[in-house]
């Protein structure tokens, strides 16, 4: 199937120019939308998706320079190719456009042959960038992709304040051995879709998936205001979604799937670890270890969600939080206060 | 004979590239839009609005160039670069001269699309 034609946004304050540029790009097989000043263009850019911006400079309300500056501040628009088409006087104005991030400058009236060449080259570059991003997103979270695009790749870590959530399926190994492998993968995929939905909705970032186990960060790589609140809200949503999922399972005579979740809050080291060729975004420290232990401890105390003292202290609403006493956990020297989220 | 206010090679090239129906519509749009720009330009002289003056001259220049109205474009360009200046009377004279060339140019454009 052929790709959909690229969609361009034409920004120009005179109707003659908007009409002519629309005609020009449509004759080249592209789709066009128009805006009559920078302000309208910025609104449209945030509502709809475009592949390229054809931008005039002299405009009332918000001029082309201001549009270029505004675009740079919006991560989602940072990769949008911009070709300035104008008849501004003075080479310094052209230089200013390029310095502000415009990919190219075409003097008006626009030469059709030149326009064709510039458009196809800019769109091809964008297509390659988009492809790369999609590929990267499949293996890393969009937050990690954004972080990588922002600061580039470098092995190394930084100290972060995070809430760490571990989750896994109770009795998953015996279950997976009792059914065909296809069914197990299908179950895992359904489970992951539900868990990711709950996690992403509260700003969490999945950094590890091993079998049926998940490790999730709240507060890294991008900082989050209320890491404990978000993590606990995500955990509650995860349980709600699993309850609904189980209604469907029971209806077809399949066993229920139960999950255990452990959450801790505190300092940790986060960053890219590995080699220059293969690395992963990860998080290490006592906060992480404790979360894994709490998750394992849910089996012992038969609770679905366990949290530590710092997470509890971080919650604005402590209703339905029950202290279940101190627990001695493997690998943790001192007994720790554990709370259950009901 | 007075020199033609429209560069026919530019006009014909545009017509060939975009089609005769389209260029007719484009000229008509110009003739609908430009009087408003001229009003803005004259208004800017009266109110001393430098930005509005420059922007109006710029728009006229840009549109005039589309159709090969070189003389109109050049007058507008000079106004865009020089700005309002200190003498309002001089600016008014320039606007009157610009309007005269505008009338000549659009008259010719009208002939061209009707012909």
What does this structure look like?
The complex is a heterodimer of chains A (342) and B (115). With 342 residues, chain A is α/β, with parallel strands linked by helices. Chain A has helices at residues 15-27, 38-47, 64-72, 91-99, 112-139, 142-151, 172-177, 181-201, 227-251, 286-301, 309-313, and strands at residues 7-11, 31-35, 52-55, 82-86, 104-107, 156-169, 205-210, 213-218, 259-274, 279-284, 305-308, 321-327, 336-341. In chain A, 44% of the residues lie in helices and 26% in strands. In chain A, strands 6, 7, 8, 9, 10, 11, 12 and 13 form an 8-stranded mixed β-sheet that branches. A 5-stranded parallel β-sheet of chain A has the order 2-1-3-4-5, sandwiched between helices. In chain A, strand 3, helix 3 (64-72) and strand 4 (82-86) form a beta-alpha-beta unit. The longest helix of chain A is centred in the middle third of the chain and has 28 residues, at 112-139. Chain A is elongated, with a radius of gyration of 26 Å. Chain A starts with 6 loop residues before the first strand and ends with a strand. Chain B is mainly α and 115 residues long. Chain B contains 5 helices and no strands. The longest helix of chain B has 28 residues, at 20-47. The mean pLDDT of chain B is 93.
Q: Mind sketching the topology for me?
A:
The complex is a heterodimer of chains A (342) and B (115).
Chain A: E1 7-11, H1 15-27, E2 31-35, H2 38-47, E3 52-55, H3 64-72, E4 82-86, H4 91-99, E5 104-107, H5 112-139, H6 142-151, E6 156-169, H7 172-177, H8 181-201, E7 205-210, E8 213-218, H9 227-251, E9 259-274, E10 279-284, H10 286-301, E11 305-308, H11 309-313, E12 321-327, E13 336-341
Parallel strand pairs in A: 1-2, 1-3, 3-4, 4-5, 9-11
Antiparallel strand pairs in A: 6-8, 6-9, 7-8, 9-10, 11-13, 12-13
Chain B: H1 8-18, H2 20-47, H3 50-67, H4 70-82, H5 88-114
Helix pairs in contact in B: 1-2, 2-3, 2-5, 3-4, 4-5
């Amino acid at each position: 199937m052929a790709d959909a034609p690229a969609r361009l946004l034409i920004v120009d304050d005179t109707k003659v120019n908007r009409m002519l540029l629309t005609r020009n790009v449509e004759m080249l097989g592209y789709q066009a939308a128009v805006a009559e000043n920078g302000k309208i263009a910025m609104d449209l850019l945030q509502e709809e998706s475009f592949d390229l911006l054809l931008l005039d400079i002299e405009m009332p309300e918000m001029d082309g320079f201001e549009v270029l500056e505004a675009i740079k501040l919006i991560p989602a628009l940072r990769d949008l190719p911009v070709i300035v088409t104008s008849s501004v006087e003075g080479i310094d104005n052209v230089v200013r456009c390029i310095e502000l991030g415009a990919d190219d400058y075409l003097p008006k009236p626009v030469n059709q042959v030149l326009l064709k060449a510039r458009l196809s080259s800019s769109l091809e570059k964008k297509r390659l960038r988009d492809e790369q991003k999609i590929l990267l997103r499949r293996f890393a979270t969009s937050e990690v992709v954004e972080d990588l695009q922002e600061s580039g790749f470098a092995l190394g870590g930084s100290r972060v304040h995070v809430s760490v959530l571990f989750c896994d399926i109770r009795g998953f190994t015996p279950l997976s051995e009792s059914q065909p492998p296809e069914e197990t993968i299908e179950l895992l995929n359904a489970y992951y879709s539900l868990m990711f939905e709950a996690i992403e909705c509260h700003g969490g970032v999945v950094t590890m998936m091993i079998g049926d186990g998940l490790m999730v960060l709240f507060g890294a790589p991008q900082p989050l205001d209320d890491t404990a609140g978000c993590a606990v809200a995500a955990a509650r949503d995860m349980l709600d979604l699993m309850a609904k999922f189980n209604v469907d399972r029971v209806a077809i005579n399949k066993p229920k799937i139960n999950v255990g979740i452990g959450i801790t809050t505190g300092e940790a080291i986060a960053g890219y670890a590995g080699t220059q060729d293969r690395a992963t975004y990860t998080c290490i420290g006592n906060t992480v270890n404790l979360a894994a232990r709490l998750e394992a401890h849910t089996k012992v105390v038969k609770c679905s969600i366990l949290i530590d003292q710092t997470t509890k202290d971080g919650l604005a609403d402590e209703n339905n939080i029950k202290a279940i006493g101190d627990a001695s956990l493997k690998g943790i020297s001192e007994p720790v206060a554990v709370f259950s989220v009901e | 004979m007075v020199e033609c206010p429209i560069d026919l090679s530019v006009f014909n090239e545009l017509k060939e590239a975009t089609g005769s129906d389209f260029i007719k519509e484009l000229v008509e749009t110009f003739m609908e839009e430009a009087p408003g720009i001229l009003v803005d330009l004259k208004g800017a002289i009266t109110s001393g609005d430098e930005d509005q003056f420059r922007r109006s001259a710029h728009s006229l220049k840009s549109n005039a160039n589309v159709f090969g109205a070189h003389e109109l474009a050049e007058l507008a360009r000079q106004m865009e670069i020089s700005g309002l200046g200190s003498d309002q009377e001089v600016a008014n004279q320039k606007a009157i001269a610009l309007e005269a060339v505008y009338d000549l140019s659009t008259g010719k454009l009208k002939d061209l699309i009707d012909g």
